[in-house]
């Protein structure tokens, strides 16, 4: 079982969605959360003119199934974000999350290594659309420095996810045996899907199918969701009657998932059943 961690969040301007810093217990790293409209307040803080790895978060289009993310590194965080704030090719971002080290022991080589590893992981996990056109190469580090940065990366990913941005957290694999969160199945209209409750939502696994036809109750929602999923490469047309998931996708709720699978308004808590025929309702609520 993972070791429990304490997260401390400091509201730097007193606003819950404003400038804030976040820390994990017994870790020298620190996350700085910067809404774009508050960047002007950060520019005057000398404490952030230091090496950092950072994430720029937003959307390239109003309608997208995934957020767009750019991963970068900086020798001077404030100077680098100042550049991105005026770059016409980087209009998409609305939030920056940067990771620094409180003891000032991060070097240019360290953040270059972290940038590369964050890009690699985000591309593997596929929980965001990467703005970076190519992955940066890893900086050459000693064995001890590399081990230290891998530990830093683990804490960074944990804190980033705790802040609501699980870009570096892998979705639990379909093959994973988990007695607490077993596999569930949903079928109807020729569609068959496999999914699981997770900490982030309800995941529908690759290989699942969804009915193309939909009822009047979901005629405003389903076509829009299908379009987003298809545009972002999560589904493809398998036949005249079915879409097929080609990548795992996390829905906000079991019902949001079953609505798409079955093509009608449904209660996912009773439509998803495990291998013994028990519903989500029976497994998680009763």
Question: Nutshell version of this structure?
Answer:
With 286 residues, this protein is of the alpha+beta class. 29% of the residues lie in helices and 24% in strands. It folds into 2 domains: 7-162, no CATH class; 184-285, no CATH class.
Give a quick set of tags describing it.
14 strands; 24% strand; seven-stranded mixed β-sheet; 286 residues
List the helices and strands and how they pair.
Elements: E1 7-11, E2 20-24, E3 29-35, H1 39-43, E4 52-58, E5 68-74, H2 77-86, E6 93-101, H3 108-125, E7 129-130, H4 143-162, E8 184-188, E9 191-197, E10 202-204, E11 209-211, H5 222-231, E12 235-237, E13 242-245, E14 249-251, H6 254-262, H7 268-271, H8 280-285
Parallel strand pairs: 5-7
Antiparallel strand pairs: 1-2, 2-3, 3-6, 4-5, 4-6, 8-9, 9-10, 10-14, 11-13, 12-13
Note down, in words, how this protein is organized:
- The structure is a single chain.
- The protein has 286 residues and is an alpha+beta fold.
- It folds into 2 domains: 156 residues, no CATH class; 102 residues, no CATH class.
- 29% of the residues lie in helices and 24% in strands.
- The protein has 8 helices and 14 strands.
- The strands form 3 sheets. It has a 7-stranded mixed beta sheet with strand order 1-2-3-6-4-5-7. A 4-stranded antiparallel beta sheet has the order 8-9-10-14, with helices on one face. Strands 11-13-12 form a 3-stranded antiparallel beta sheet.
- Strand 12 and strand 13 form a beta hairpin.
- Helix 3 packs across helix 4.
- The two termini are 25 Å apart.
- The mean pLDDT is 92.
